[in-house]
Amino acid sequence: MEYVILIGALIIFVGLIVLLFRWVIGMNKRKVILHTAFAEKHGFSIETSKYLTAKLNTMVGQKDGINITIDERMVGSGKNQHVVTTLTLTPTSFDFDFKIGKEHIFSKMGKGLGFKDVEIGDEKFDKRFLLKSKDPDKLKMLVDYNIQADLKAIDADLKASIYGNGNIMTYALSQPMMKQKQLDSFEKVMELMLKLVTKKNGRRETTNY
Q1: How deeply is 38 buried, as exposed, middle or buried, from its count of CB atoms within 10 A (0-12, 13-18, 19+)?
Q2: Which of 55, 108, 173, 202 measures 20 to 30 Å from 14, CA to CA?
Q3: Where along the chain do its domains lie?
């Protein structure tokens, strides 16, 4: 009787493992389809690599002379291993470093980088969004009234901070984009970043999507 129970438990365990693998494979296929559609929409090339059971995508393209890379990478080890999705725009014409994000419990960490808090003067905006830079005046000029309005419009879509560092602008999510809603939010942030990069003399160049 004990052997029967043991064999039954083993069969159930193997069955669960098989179902889990099928679920993972299905999720990966759906993600590749979503990412391929996103790449085609923007005229990006896409390559898919495999890391254990995960499919990792890399999209590369260009808009308005700006090189765009969307890269999925596995970081960490053991139980802390997870996918990070990074959007990179280069080159930029910025001659200062900055951070644009949201107020949260770790907001003050930027001071360790020598960044200063930058307030626009709009109480609601300053409470909701976090601006940091070593050159506050330059960041204030960059985040003008129009950019402020754009940030407010994508408030719910901004899941991480935008960093300007030298001639590179980045935005990194500590998760893969598995659903269309996530890609839609990511796209809105990408559009805002392109507006920032192509913004000159307080005026924005037109970007067609």
Answers
A1: buried
A2: 55
A3: 2-204
* DSSP type of residue 99: E
**Residue 29: Cβ within 10 Å count:** 11
Each residue of 63-114: pLDDT tens digit? 989 999 999 999 888 778 889 999 999 999 898 999 999 876 455 554 555 6
Evaluate whether 97 touches 88 at the Cβ level (below 8 Å). no
What pLDDT does 208 receive? 44
User: Could you tell me which of 181, 125, 114 has the C-alpha nearest to residue 151?
Assistant: 125
Cβ-count burial of 112 within 10 angstroms (0-12 exposed, 13-18 middle, 19+ buried)?
exposed
How many angstroms separate the Cα of 150 from the Cα of each of 1, 76, 191?
A: 68, 34, 10
pTM over 0.90: no
How buried is residue 6: exposed, middle or buried, by Cβ count under 10 Å (0-12/13-18/19+)? exposed
Is-cis flag, bond preceding 91, omega within 30? Answer: yes
Question: DSSP state, 109?
Answer: G
Radius of gyration of the chain from its Cα atoms, rounded to whole angstroms: 21
State how far the Cα of 83 lies from the Cα of 186, in Å rounded to an integer.
15
